[in-house]
Amino acid sequence: MQLIVYCARITPRVEYIFSTLLNAIGVNNFQLTEDVAFFNNSTGYKINYSTAYVREDILWIDPVTLLFENDIQKQPIEIFSWKGTKVFFKSSNGDLPFDIFAASFYLITRYEEYLPYKVDTYGRYAHENSIAYKSDFLCLPLVNLWLKEFCTLLKQAFPFLYFDTPGFRFLPTYDIDIAFSYSHKGYVRNAGGLLRAMAEGEWARASERINVLFGNQKDPFDSYEWLDELHEKYHLKPIYFFLVAPEIKGYDKNILPSKKAVQKLMQKHSAAYHVGVHPSWQSGDTPELLQQEIETLATITGNNIHKSRQHYIRMTLPETYRRLMQAGISEDYTMGYGSINGFRASYCLPYLWYNLQKEEITSLTIYPFCYMDANSYFEQHLSGVEALKEMQHYYNVTKEVNGLFITIWHNHFLGTDKMFEGWKEIYSTMVDRIYNKD
């Protein structure tokens, strides 16, 4: 039997968030209607999303105005508690004390990132601006937790309503910013690095460079075979994002994609795994470079490239997503912070991007991540033990809501570089816990 939702006015915002949330909990057979007579005469399960009371046997969500607006303005946010979680957009009436659909829309669309905000040291949206950080729920997939309670309410109201809810999944992803530490960097870069190490008295690092270049030691950033073994052991299907900036400049320190060894690395991985582009920092300043980088990676791998994640998590809404769509990208994995771990959109399932500026549902699918090694190490300054505990937390809360647990690791964290000693073991321990200690 169909779930029928009455709404006094169906807007693109209403269509988007009802579709997103109901599909997320596995309710795929539903209909939105503005027709009161049809709603009253229907024999389906019913939700009243309006300010008007209908009758007692119908689930009633009393809405705030957000989903019926067509502009972007600062919203009144007052946090309070419900079922052990933090909520906002309080309802005056109804079966829920807050408007779950409007609050979810606000978080998932990143509404606050369309308003004026302070930037961080990299010019990105600073996580300190967010309601999730200020209200101390950045570490939770809050929307999914709301949905879990909402499911319980629906099951109580409609015992025979069918839920085709997906189960928990783990998706490992890797950013290959610098494929090798010493190998294939050329004479000039290696000579300069060797001289700097010697001038600073870093004799062990200088010796390591020489040993690698003469083939007596494996490159410390080369973790690829080890990762292959890990993936095979646990039947993992990861995604690798390659930085293919055409010029070494600023934050783009990759080995140039013209190098044969790097091309072979990309080809090997694209043959075994999914591969995406890691748009360079330069492409954020020079948009036409994005298409060039996508075409470079496509030419090298022989595959169409439709996945992406921004280098340094450099993202501005709606410009970045708009550019990606224009370049043919259909899946983006940037939704998260490059300054702290957590749930940037308070959500841990893939969802379509809603362009608030144009008030339209797009075809770009967003895959939010919640954990990145570089955040733990460089930004939050966690020890290995603390990082493992943090990752365990994100795994636990994602699994609790049957979400998609997406992590970001870099090849240099998982090799033999002394700077990241022990981090390979941290990662393998976490993966082992996911598959062997549920």
Write the layout of secondary structure elements.
Blueprint: E1 3-7, H1 12-24, E2 30-33, H2 36-41, E3 45-49, E4 59-60, E5 80-82, E6 85-87, H3 100-108, H4 131-134, H5 142-157, E7 169-176, H6 186-199, H7 203-213, H8 224-234, E8 239-242, H9 260-272, E9 274-277, H10 281-285, H11 288-301, E10 307-308, H12 319-326, E11 331-332, E12 351-355, E13 360-366, E14 371-372, H13 373-379, H14 384-400, E15 404-410, H15 423-436
In the CATH classification, which architecture of the largest domain applies? Alpha-Beta Barrel
Report the β-strand fraction as a percent range. 5-15%
**Count of β-strands:** 15
> How many distinct domains?
2
What shape does the CA trace take?
Answer: elongated
Number of helical segments with 4 or more residues: 15
Per CATH, the superfamily of the largest domain is Glycoside hydrolase/deacetylase
Distance between the termini: 35 Å
The CATH top-level class label of the largest domain? Alpha Beta
Sequence of strands across the biggest β-sheet: 9-8-7-15-14
The fold-level CATH name of the largest domain is TIM Barrel
The whole-number mean of residue pLDDT values reads 94
- Gyration radius, to the nearest Å? 24 Å
> What structural class should be given to the helix and strand makeup?
alpha/beta
- Poorly predicted ranges (pLDDT <50, ≥5 residues)? none
Give a quick account of the main beta sheet: strands, pairing sense, barrel closure. 5 strands, parallel
Kindly state the percentage of residues in helix: 25-40%
Descriptive key words:
single chain; 438 residues; alpha/beta
